[in-house]
Amino acid sequence: MSPLSASKDLLDGRPEGSDGIDQLGHVVTGELDLSHGVALYLEDITVSFDGFKALNNLNLAIDAGELRCIIGPNGAGKTTMMDVITGKTRPDSGKAFFGQSIDLTRLSEPEIAHAGIGRKFQKPTIFEQHSVFENLELAMKTDKRVWKSLLAWLSGEQRDRIADTLKLIRLNGEADRPAGLLSHGQKQWLEIGMLLMQEPKLLLLDEPVAGMTDDETMRTAELFVSLAGKHSLVVVEHDMAFVERLGGKVTVLHEGSVLAEGDLATVQNDPRVIEVYLGR
Amino acid sequence: MRTPLSVRFLSALDTKGWLVLGVFLTLTLLVVPLLNLAVPEDSAFHVSAYFITLIGKIMCYALVAVAMDLIWGFGGILSLGHGLFFALGGYAFGMYLMRQIGRDGSYGADLPDFMIFLDWKELPWFWFGSDSFGWAMLLVVLVPALVAFVFGYFAFRSRIKGVYFSIITQALTYAAMLLFFRNETGFGGNNGFTDFKRILGYSITAPETRLVLFGLTALALAATLVFAAWLVKSKFGRVLTAIRDAESRVMFIGYNPLWYKLTIWVISAVLCGIAGALYVPQVGIINPGEMSTANSIEIAIWVAVGGRGTLIGPVIGAFVVNLAKSWFTVSFPEYWLFFLGLLFIIVTLFLPQGLVGLWKKFAARKGVAA
Ligand SMILES: Nc1ncnc2c1ncn2[C@@H]1O[C@H](COP(=O)(O)OP(=O)(O)OP(=O)(O)O)[C@@H](O)[C@H]1O
Ligand SMILES: [Mg+2]
């Protein structure tokens, strides 16, 4: 079994625990409903920091199973957009829906994670003092209430899942090392592995290949492409070779709103995009 | 196959840990009582009542230090108000001890002396049930738990962190101290509770009672260490340290830090309450001074000196600092606070891992040389 098909086994075919109540015991606004083919829907989102509009009437729709790339100059609002989707930042106005029925503006960060959105930060954020294995263990999809954590004990099946992911992210030799000792690229992979352990429906990846070697970058692209279809992915990147390899639709953000959208070739030839971003 | 809970509990400590614990319990439950009761007082091997009270008191402090390590060392939350929970446990048990005086007080009345002095005719409502040992034990646990839960819930829900949290805990214990200083509050004002006579009907000054209290304190400390070791090795403990190191990551993988912080906060407060309840009958007094801000800061110093996040370090820190303190207060009382300040500065600047860190460094160097 190749590592990539292992990843599919890892993420697919697992029973969904969505019965309208997430594992923190809170009622979410609805089950994840992808029946209309839309995974993520942002409408007229505005976020201002002290009067400065980091997002300005942003509109974006991601289809179920789509792999979307977001590009744009520094400060365009890409990270802020992910903050809105994951509940870290509340928009001043606008709508944000996950599927048809889950209102993201009303849920907390852990509730959104349970609803099925996973996020990789721009700066790799892992638990540096914990071992690589423990990082994956903590991320694994399971009941995350205090009581369950007190009595939690890994089953053989769970250990196997962690082992599979370790192999997939090529860190099986490092399982017991403190994550803080990994190289930058390895940390990026570990964070991606943590994301996979969560079994999310929508993956938000903020500059996932920054600091990776060309070889690592291409393997990451392969992994993402293999995940698309069953999962929706939103990838923010500056690395054009990587974006090209991913092959999906591209959205260009500029000053907090969408400047252009389409396949990479179209966008690259758009004079406005060349002026604000690519031409520099 | 599932691993039974008992096996998981046994794996909380390694073999060396269980051995050290066994030695500790043999010393405190067997050797010390024998040397106190069976060896004549003029023998060099006799263990004095003074020594037993001193070590008993320091073991209570050590228990508080372990509680502080759970929340500070593992949870990354520095409380500068843990003296409050200690005092609440002490007062809760002190109420029972006051009722055990019965009519042997200086006024020969049913009410505690300070109430007669205030010209009160009956017990205030919150003294209800205070003549029952079981009720007192319940209060020892529930009062610190409730105060910690309510305070912690609002503080953690508002995401108050770092130095802001520490300052608020200082304010909390200070406010409680002012409240307990008032005679009308009903806890004996600035004199607090003292002149205890009995506990469960037994004379509180009898050598046997003293030894039982000493032994119970040793057991409580040992049990707390095992419990704490199990806790920090559980997945709960890993989530807790993860919150300490990267809280936002923890939230985005689906844990709600509020409940994790609140759980360890309440556990820590309850442990302090138990320590306070063991402390009061051994020392024979509880007054609002226990809630002073300086007391709570001192708890943090024990933990820092011993080594944060090591569990055993805080026990060592509590012993080292308090043994030094009892020596200073006899020999050079006026220099104690200077010494304490100096110690804190040295530890902060040169020993970030405390004495345990120093020992580890030393052991590692020896290991390399060998
Ligand atoms: N918490 C905040 N307070 C004030 N300003 C902020 C805050 N967060 C973001 N900004 C500002 O909002 C703008 C958008 O920032 P954002 O991080 O979303 O950009 P980005 O597209 O991710 O850029 P980069 O490519 O550099 O990562 C920037 O000008 C930034 O300075
Ligand atoms: Mg960014």
Automatic annotation (TrEMBL), chain A:
Which Pfam families does the record associate with it? ABC_tran, BCA_ABC_TP_C
Which superkingdom heads the taxonomic lineage of this protein's source? Bacteria
Entry's Gene Ontology cellular component terms? plasma membrane
Instruction: List the Gene3D superfamilies hit by this protein, alphabetically.
Output: P-loop containing nucleotide triphosphate hydrolases
Stretches assigned to the ABC transporter domain: 40-280
UniProt entry keywords in alphabetical sequence: ATP-binding, Nucleotide-binding, Transport
Q: Which InterPro entries match?
A: ABC_AA/LPS_Transport, ABC_transporter-like_ATP-bd, ABC_transptr_urea_ATP-bd_UrtD, BCA_ABC_TP_C, P-loop_NTPase
Key word Metal-binding present in the record? no
Gene Ontology MF: a single term: ATP hydrolysis activity
- Which SUPFAM superfamilies does this UniProt record tie to the protein? P-loop containing nucleoside triphosphate hydrolases
Task: Point out the coiled-coil segments of this chain.
Answer: none
Kindly provide the name given to this protein in its UniProt entry. Answer: Urea transport system ATP-binding protein
State the organism of origin.
Rhodocyclus tenuis
UniProtKB/TrEMBL annotation, chain B:
State a GO cellular component annotated for this protein: plasma membrane
The entry's localization annotation reads: Cell membrane
Annotated GO molecular function terms are: branched-chain amino acid transmembrane transporter activity
UniProt keywords, alphabetically: Cell membrane, Membrane, Transmembrane, Transmembrane helix
The protein's superkingdom reads Bacteria
Residues passing through the membrane, by range: 18-39, 45-64, 71-93, 133-156, 163-181, 211-232, 258-279, 299-323, 335-355
What is the protein's membrane topology class? Answer: Multi-pass membrane protein
Q: What PANTHER family does the annotation carry?
A: HIGH-AFFINITY BRANCHED-CHAIN AMINO ACID TRANSPORT SYSTEM PERMEASE (PTHR30482), SLR1201 PROTEIN (PTHR30482:SF4)
Protein name per UniProt: Urea transport system permease protein
